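WARN no homologs supplied; continuing
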Amino acid sequence: MKAVNTVRINAYAKLNLTLDIKGKQGGYHMLDSLVTTVDVFDRIVLKRRKDGLVRVTMRGLGSEEIFPENNNAQRAGDAFVQAFSSRGADITIYKNIPLASGMGGSSADIAGVIAGMGRLYDVTDMGAMKALADGLGSDAGYLLTGGLARIRGRGEQVEPLPFVPMHFLLFLPEWRVSTQACYARFDEMAGTGSNRTGEAARALQGGNVGWAARLFGNDLYPAACEIEPAVREACSAAAGFSPLGSSMTGSGAAAFACFESRELCEWAKSRYRGPCRTLVTRSADPRAPRTVASPFSLGDGEQA
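OK structure emitted
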């Protein structure tokens, strides 16, 4: 096989359609969540090096200010080299997934770097790459494949589900919510977990998107609102246009409204007058058949 010198990858964001907290084990919160990837993504370009170094450059959304020691994409590249005894890479990440929004931007970059390094160095052991991703970010193992799925535990238990097309209007507050602070506040509030995920998953798989959307919800919402009131404003705005369903994703601060069509999303966007940035998007399935093995790849023409 001819060596690949450059790989270009789209690392997709996710939405937590439901997020139920099922207690704690070993200091970690156990989740039961229905998730889907959407067509908002970071663009990752990886170039082969002759040595074992990994150098990550961030571009956009203020990501240039992230120190290398705090950069999960850097950690992912270094961990890949160590795990698979490969050479390194020069990696540039063009950020488009909003930071600290609950849309999995950091985990998407972990997954994208691991998938891209796998293509650079012809590593095809998806089990080993998922284990590596799981150890670096709670959603990273799931985001190696993306699509619609039910994830449990710390996010490492992934049950892929048949893809369901859905349309969303995102509401993106200017302010951010710390994931760690949100979970800590949930514990302080003695929050109790819900049981909506299983029913929502069954409704979606039965073709009843409207009933599933009524079950969309997030156990972290009250805690996120206490940390940042803009979350409540975003979720109220999302619910205010009579969508099929709405909720907050992850630990916030982004909210979403699910509509029957893109046209209705555009209609709601045109009438919103609040402070949040809005974005029309749809569910995306990176698992759909492609001409190359990686679900993140854009195709053979993207190799250099």
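The longest helix spans residues 105-120.
OK
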